[in-house]
């Protein structure tokens, strides 16, 4: 349910068809060109250089972190750095162990197998993957019942690159078989500015440095969102102005798309508005809050809440959802003396309503 809702949001980190097409054109080709994630880049560079010197396939790689941070891009860079072909699939696409066996048996020596959303792999396929990763062998079951036999199938050495947005759902036996694990962090605004300037050059968009900073500030720490906002601001600048992206034009364009200065969109603000105006800052249950904004509970929990919690605007407690002092300030509202059970007398001056 929430995937459909996310696809309609300009600030979602989920990728749609247009995003995938643009990402292919904007995607860095090597580690030196990849912006951000310095720690992961340095560690991965050592793994790949050592493998090249040995003339062997690198260890299996697990990349974890929120969507939109470059896990797929890094997998393609691994293949490019090793001069190897890459096969791309995803956990949900592999429903049966036979599906995985067909993919594994067709791999060539040194090939990179990228498995996105690996935590959603079916259990039979997952168990087959254990032996394939460790021994480069799979057992293909032929027949049914007492007459079934297992035929061992030897595999050429390959490298599995797994990507997951929920590393905690990976079973320990699978996680332990990866020789390198890299966790992707959200980007700082300065890093996103570099991403935006690079994308602007590739898209032939004329952009002012302060215009890039304005877009980066609203991109929620995610390059995919930054590139999407850049394209929408470009459209606005080309249709209603001379094409140059300035901070004023970026602000006006993002106002049209309902992305506020902190990166919140309509759904985010609807959740905060209901929490503050209807429930006095909480605590309020998830289902009640979802009904108040006219969305499914899963949509509120999975689509809106993670960013609101990360920004310190909302807190999840055993009693329900509670708005923080920053939430009242962001909407320009004055909180009750004990809003949501949070004492705020020291910060009361921050919540003076704006003049009419």
UniProtKB/TrEMBL annotation:
GO terms for cellular component: cytoplasm; Holliday junction resolvase complex. InterPro entries: AAA+_ATPase, AAA_lid_4, DNA_helicase_Holl-junc_RuvB, P-loop_NTPase, RuvB-like_N, RuvB_wg_C, WH-like_DNA-bd_sf, WH_DNA-bd_sf. The keyword DNA-binding applies. ATP binds at residues 26-27, 68, 71-73, 134-136, 177, 187, 224. The keyword RNA-binding does not apply. One of its GO terms (molecular function) is four-way junction DNA binding. Homohexamer. Forms an RuvA(8)-RuvB(12)-Holliday junction (HJ) complex. HJ DNA is sandwiched between 2 RuvA tetramers; dsDNA enters through RuvA and exits via RuvB. An RuvB hexamer assembles on each DNA strand where it exits the tetramer. Each RuvB hexamer is contacted by two RuvA subunits (via domain III) on 2 adjacent RuvB subunits; this complex drives branch migration. In the full resolvosome a probable DNA-RuvA(4)-RuvB(12)-RuvC(2) complex forms which resolves the HJ. This is Holliday junction branch migration complex subunit RuvB. The gene is ruvB.
């Amino acid at each position: 349910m929430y995937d459909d809702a996310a696809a309609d949001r300009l600030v979602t980190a989920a990728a749609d068809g247009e995003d995938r097409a643009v990402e292919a054109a904007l995607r860095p080709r090597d580690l030196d060109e990849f912006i951000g994630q310095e720690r992961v880049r340095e560690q991965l560079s050592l793994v790949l250089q050592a493998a090249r010197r040995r003339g062997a396939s690198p260890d299996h790689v697990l990349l974890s972190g929120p969507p939109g941070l470059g896990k797929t891009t890094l997998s393609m860079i691994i293949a490019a750095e090793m001069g190897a072909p890459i096969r791309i699939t995803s956990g949900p696409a592999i429903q049966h162990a036979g599906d995985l066996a067909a993919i594994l048996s067709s791999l060539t020596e040194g090939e990179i197998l990228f498995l996105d959303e690996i935590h959603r792999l079916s259990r039979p396929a997952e168990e087959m993957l254990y032996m394939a990763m460790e021994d480069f062998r799979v057992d293909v079951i032929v027949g049914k019942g007492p007459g079934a036999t297992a035929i061992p199938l030897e595999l050429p050495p390959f490298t599995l690159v797994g990507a997951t947005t929920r590393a905690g759902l990976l079973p320990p036996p699978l996680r332990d078989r990866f020789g390198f694990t890299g966790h992707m962090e959200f980007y700082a605004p300065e890093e996103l500015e570099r991403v935006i300037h690079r994308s602007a050059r590739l898209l032939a968009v004329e952009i002012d440095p302060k215009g890039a900073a304005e877009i980066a500030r609203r991109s929620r720490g995610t390059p995919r969102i930054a590139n999407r906002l850049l394209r929408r601001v470009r459209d606005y600048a080309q249709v209603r102005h001379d094409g140059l992206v300035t901070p004023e034009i970026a602000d006006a364009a993002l106002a049209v798309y309902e992305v506020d200065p902190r990166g919140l969109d309509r759904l985010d603000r609807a959740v905060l508005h209901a929490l503050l105006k209807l429930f006095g800052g909480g605590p309020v249950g998830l289902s009640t809050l979802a009904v108040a904004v006219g969305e499914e509970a899963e949509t509120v929990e999975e689509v809106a809440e993670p960013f609101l919690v990360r920004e310190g605007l909302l807190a999840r407690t055993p009693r329900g959802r509670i708005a923080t002092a920053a939430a009242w300030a962001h909407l320009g509202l004055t909180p009750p003396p004990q809003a949501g059970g949070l004492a705020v007398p020291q910060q009361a001056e921050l919540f003076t309503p704006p003049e009419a």
